[in-house]
Amino acid sequence: MMPSFRQKVVGFLRQLSNQSENNRNFEDQTPDLQSESFIKRYLSGQEVSKDEPKIVHGRFAQELPSLSLGVVSRPVLVAATGPDGGLTTVNRRQRHLSVSDPDVRFIDLVDDDLQPPSQTGAERFVGETSGSDLDGSKSETKVIPPPPEYAVQTSESAPDINKNAPTMTTSMTQISAQLTPTDESFTTLNPIQKSESVPNASERFHQEVAGVTEWSGAGVSRAYGRSTSLYERHPGTGVPAGEPVADCFAVVARRDSAVLCLADGVNWGVKASLAARSAVHGCVDYLNRAIFNWPITSTTEVFVALLRSFHAAHNLILQEEGLLTTLTAVIVLPLATADRYVACACNVGDSLAYVYSPRHGVREITQGSHDLNRMRDMRDALGALGPVDGQNPELGNLTCSMTEVEPGDIVFLTSDGVSDNLDPVVGKFTGLPNVEAHQRHKLTLLRTEDLLRNGVSGRGPPCSTARDVVSLLIDFVTRLTAAKRKMLEDVELYQDAEGPRSRGKQRARRREVCSKLAMVPGKLDHATVAAYNVGDLVTDAPIEVS
């Protein structure tokens, strides 16, 4: 029965009355700024932006300022990967790229005179903005030379690698063999042999994989990672939805530097998980060999290596026949100036990187990969490695980013299962009025900072180690999504008084529940965090074995 005109007018007046009452209640709460949350302080203009280090970003290495780097230690002290063996479960048979192959191109090369590919049937790399100089001319891009074992050389001796990096011709050798790092200044330092292992760790944890011999499952307090599933479990079988976990992480820490890598396979399934593990394996393997086997002098060389590590990651995904995945990699290195460090990041997709500073708060390193002034569709990853279009990736939001960090800062990477649940809209914080896109991003950073400073309870203590950050964020998103899981684990979804429901009845029942799920905070997903404490891993704090 349709409501009468009188009923419509009464209902409209009641809405106006309730709205004005809510506005008065909100205004009555504003005077006591000391008791207000960070949300109200920010929206009322009380949360003043801190004088934090700048974040610069661009699509190519040449678009970013070049900073001089200090001497980097080479022995690996901590190497952690997961879940369930992480990158160690991926086949190591990688395709070698020959420097004599004119069809090999890299996404970091810039050439105005792009030549068509030769008649060998090679497909162009999607998102590639440059090509080989097929006429034999050289690019002026400074790059890192290949190792002596794989460089094309004549009978003459190899060039001096301590000189300026040579210019790049048509291609570069793929680095994929063991090079034992040496560092005379740390010959007395015993690298960590083993840390906490995962239940399904393979025998390859004790073989050389991706340039590292000894891998652990989680790491130590200053270099740590963890993955979990936020999806519900079937009440009958106990099997979690979305298995296996399609995320993968790796943290490789040396005395004064670290490589952090995180991939989030698109959708569910074994192929998505395989893509994530292959991407992390290919990326970490390349970076370990390209960055830490001879001196590097500038951040430009680091970004060249980062971009090429993404090329290696994509190739390994194709080789292993995986599907699509995001990828984010961060390298923390010492600058030439004492006690100063830089975080160089490269990412494609929606896996993000952050810095937590006790002095400056939380800032997102990868903020240049998405438009802060536009509401983001969380169903769109914006980019991915793997066979998106034929054998080509989608590099629409491929971004290089850089920011300076200080000793004591914590650099951490998250999959969207964590970062999306820190969003104020997804978290459904009570009393939150409508916000614009840039305010939503800032509130996400403030929400994260508030968690890391005050904990889930709001009474602290603040996080001081990488393990603290990882454990707190995983605990927070697990608690936030608990109500959603409980609703989906209801036995009545799968059976009634007469016995198990048919698939059709189960789907109909789940559609009824979905309307209620939209009112509950949180997003169900795979959740992964990897973190690293900036500074000297030996002198700043003792290294313990988990």
Automatic annotation (TrEMBL):
- Stretches the record annotates as Disordered: 112-160
SMART domains registered for this protein in UniProt: PP2C_SIG (SM00331), PP2Cc (SM00332)
The UniProt entry, under Gene3D superfamilies, shows:
PPM-type phosphatase domain
Give one Pfam family, short name only.
PP2C_2
Q: What are the PPM-type phosphatase domain coordinates in residue numbering?
A: 227-477
Tell me where on the tree of life, at the top rank, the source sits: Eukaryota
Name used for this protein in its record: PPM-type phosphatase domain-containing protein
Q: From what organism does this protein derive? A: Laodelphax striatellus
Q: What is the lineage of its organism?
A: Eukaryota, Metazoa, Ecdysozoa, Arthropoda, Hexapoda
